[in-house]
Amino acid sequence: MNWLNRIVNTDKITAKRLFIIALVLIAGLEVITVNILHLGHGHFWFENLPAFGSGYGFISCLLIIILAKFILAPLLGKKEDYYD
Amino acid sequence: MIDYPIHPGLLLIFGAALIPFLKEQVKKVYLLALLGVAFCICALLPQGVYGCFSILGYNLTFLRVDKLSLLFSYVFTLAGLIGFIYALHVKDDLQHIAALIYMGSALGVVFAGDFLVLFVFWEIMAFASVCLVWANRTEESIKAGFRYLLVHIFGGILLLAGIMLQISETGSIAFNSLMNLKGGLSFYLIMFGFMLNAAVPPIHAWLPDAYPRATVTGAVFMSAYTTKSAVYVLIRGFSGEELLMILGSIMAVYGVIYATMENNGRRLLAYHIVSQVGFMVCGIGIGNETAINGASAHAFAHIIYKGLLFMGAGAVLYMAGTIKLTELGGLYKKMPLTMIFFVIGGLSIAGVPLMSGFVSKSMTITGAGESHNAFAFLMLTLASSGTFLSIVLKMTYYMFFGKESNLDVTEPPKNMLVAMAIASAICIVIGCYPQILYVHLPYPVNYHPYTIQHVLSALGLFAFTILGFVMLFKKMAPKDVINLDTDWFYRKGAGVVMNVINKKIAPFEYNFIGEVYEWLIQKPVLKVAGFIGVFDRRVFDRLSDSLAETVTSLSEVLRVIQTGKAHDYAFGVVIGLCVAVVIIILL
Predict the structure, then answer these.
(1) CA of A25: which chain B residue's CA is closest?
(2) B551-573: pLDDT as tens digits
(3) What is the pLDDT, as a whole number, of residue B166?
């Protein structure tokens, strides 16, 4: 499984650069197809906002992490032997 | 054959009886053959209604075969086949028997055409599945099994009550859409019973409580049947019920949030069952053709990829002895194949294009769009992002990558790898050729998942979820804790209630209510009793006393005669006789 090792051990700067390129590419394509070429036909007005998928994905992810890890985890987390 | 087809569920249930008598190798062949035959029977079943019996004036229907029941029977037998390949190395007959009866009864539920047959199989399912938890044979799993069983019996009783009411109202036991009974007590009781098995919050906690404590292979079976048979009966009975749409949307997000907090890998996956079943329940609640198709397709795809994920997590647990994310890491070097299969399952559940989750999940979401239901649309999309976050990113990273754990592990046994490979292949094939699945859906499909907007919006959703994960990476580290859920109410809450009763209510009862009782009831009663006593003594007692005195004085008089000597009495008898003779002569 050499290819796997190579992927995992990519150096951080290259990985970061590739990741940012991918993000810009996807969000850019979304804007181009939906807002410029009008190839989509969403059911809601907000689906046709520029890069809706990307933006909502980012907001969703932050919302879930904040709700789960910042707010609920301190309230609900108990030691493993809590029920014993 | 056509007139009386074999019931595939009964075949599995009765087929289980042979298991203890078979030798090691024969048993393996027999298990796979049995499931293979069951799958073929389902594939060949012509649509129609078979196996009808009339008992006490009620028509029982064992086999109602239509597109919906066929779809679920295909995936149930297919998942059983894959599950048994995964479980071939297990030498515990109890698990094989329990799994076969469990599958058979789930098929029985799917083919049942009336409420009584449905209920009988429904209960068998609960009792068979709990054996897969108990088969772990640890104190923890035995306790969890009992909790699981109690919750299901509670749900079963409410379901039975609903069924009885429904029969008394309509006079028929046929199981069809119940939407015409909406608003009645029977409607809500039956829906509650179904919802409990579908793990709809707040009555979902039995699932993440019991599933992670089942055996490695038992959890794979459990992930498939209980919740999905509940989805099936909800589609049959409650399509278009708005409450289900709301609860389904909430539950999709609820499961994801708990999964994000969770440290135990199998419990994390269990919360994702809650979340994914939320998609289906929401689709059922929306109720238009696309949404119902989406819910059915999602149930099909879900059983395969969720089985795959539980197989991957089970393989890690089997080899490493733990599935806590805090104790794992860096396993990709030692278990690369397991990692690849697990990631395929992860990408499928998240709904990445070209994977099975994408073609089924986006269908449900489009159903929400067609009904112009922005709430369901946004909640389900949010849950998609969270699914990607907690399985593909969090669980995969902390299990297979991240810090080295120095666990001495290798790839799992071959049969486990083969089962995972088959499930992975199904995930990819359905993702690439969705028509294979779409032709079996209950309504004709007029939906294309691979439009430019769909694909790009899904890719954007996931790419930017990765961005969020990377930004808040430090916060994502799993912690060695458990998170409270609604099972707290019956695991701790019941104890708290007892404590409150013992320490608060009992003394209050004794001190306050006891006093009040004494003043208001005890004392007046004593007063009245005292008065009656006086009356009793003065009147009744004197009456009986004087009677007794009379009797005594009379007996004093009589005592003179009663000397107790025989000759006195003989003398009296002689005198008496003489008197009698004199009287007779005189007369």
Answers:
(1) B460
(2) 998 888 888 777 778 888 888 88
(3) 92
- A15 interface with B at CB cutoff 8 Å: no
Q: Is any Cβ of chain B less than 8 angstroms from the Cβ of A35?
A: no
- Side chain identity at residue B204, one-letter code: H
Residue B382 near residue A63 (C-beta atoms within 8 A): yes
**For residue B362, what are its two tokens?**
């986006």
Q: What is the pLDDT of residue B311?
A: 97
- Tell which residue, B446, B455, B576, B232, has the closest CA to residue A30: B455
CA-wise closest residue to B213 among B276, B128, B262, B145: B145
B13 lies in a domain?
yes
Query: According to the model, what pLDDT value does residue B146 have?
Result: 95
> Per the domain annotation, does B36 fall within a domain?
yes
pTM of the model: 0.86
Instruction: Judge: A39–B452 Cβ closer than 8 Å, yes or no.
Output: yes
Q: What pLDDT, in 10s, does the model give residues B194-252?
A: 999 999 999 999 999 999 999 999 999 999 999 999 999 999 999 999 999 999 999 99
Is residue B304 within 8 Å of B426, Cβ to Cβ? yes
pLDDT of residue B3: 59
**Domain end: B479, B504, B535, which one?**
B479
DSSP H helices, B287-355, are 289-320, 336-350
Query: What's the Cα-to-Cα distance from B553 to each of A46, B542, B549, B558, B562, rounded to whole Å?
Result: 113, 16, 6, 9, 14
**CB contact burial A66-84 (16+ within 10 A = b; e otherwise):** ebbbeebbeebbeeeeeee
Closest CA to B448 of B466, B435, B458, B461: B435
Tokens of B14: 């009765």
Instruction: Count CA atoms within 13 Å of residue A15 on its CB side.
Output: 10
Residues of A in contact with B479 (CB under 8 A): 73, 77
Per-residue confidence (pLDDT) for residue B103, from 0 to 100 = 97
Domain residues for the domain of B523 are 491-580
Are B10 and B86 contained in the same domain?
yes
- Give the pLDDT of residue B53: 87
Q: Is B287 found in the same domain as B202?
A: no
- Residue B469 belongs to a domain: yes
* Shared-domain flag, residues B99 and B143: yes
Residues B416 and B548 in one domain: no
Nearest alpha carbon to residue A57 among B376, B252, B387, B272: B387
| Cα–Cα nearest to A72, from A63, A80, A81 | A63
Give the nearest partner residue to B377 out of A44, A55, A72, using CB atoms. A44
Supply the pLDDT for residue B1: 41
List, for chain B, all residue ranges whose pLDDT scores fall below the cut of 70: 1-4
CB < 8 Å to A43, chain B: 366, 369-370, 372, 377
Q: Which two tokens stand for residue B253?
A: 């997000």
Taking Cα atoms as reference points, which of B439, B495, B476 lies closest to residue B71?
A: B439
**Alpha carbon distance B123, B151 (integer Å):** 12
pLDDT tens digits, B244-283: 999 999 999 999 999 999 999 999 999 999 999 999 999 9
